[in-house]
Amino acid sequence: MDRYSALRRTARDVGADAVALVPGPNFERLYNTSFHSLERPLVVIVPVENAPAAVVPNLEMRSFDALGFEGKVFDWRDQDGYASAFAALAKQTPLGTLAVEGQVMRVFVHHALKTAYPGLQIVDAEREISALRRVKSPQEIATLECAIRASEQALAEVLEQVRTGQTEAEVESLLTQALFRNGAQEHAFGPIVAAGDNSAKPHAHARTDYALRDGDTLLFDFGARVDGLNADITRTVFVGHATDEARSVYEVVLAANLKGHEITRPGVTAHDVDDACTAVLEASPWSDWIRTKTGHGLGRAVHEAPQIMRGNHEILEPGMVFTIEPGLYGDGAFGIRIEDDVLVTETGCRSLTTFPKELTVVGQC
Amino acid sequence: MDRYSALRRTARDVGADAVALVPGPNFERLYNTSFHSLERPLVVIVPVENAPAAVVPNLEMRSFDALGFEGKVFDWRDQDGYASAFAALAKQTPLGTLAVEGQVMRVFVHHALKTAYPGLQIVDAEREISALRRVKSPQEIATLECAIRASEQALAEVLEQVRTGQTEAEVESLLTQALFRNGAQEHAFGPIVAAGDNSAKPHAHARTDYALRDGDTLLFDFGARVDGLNADITRTVFVGHATDEARSVYEVVLAANLKGHEITRPGVTAHDVDDACTAVLEASPWSDWIRTKTGHGLGRAVHEAPQIMRGNHEILEPGMVFTIEPGLYGDGAFGIRIEDDVLVTETGCRSLTTFPKELTVVGQC
Question: What's the predicted TM-score (pTM) here?
Answer without folding.
Answer: 0.87
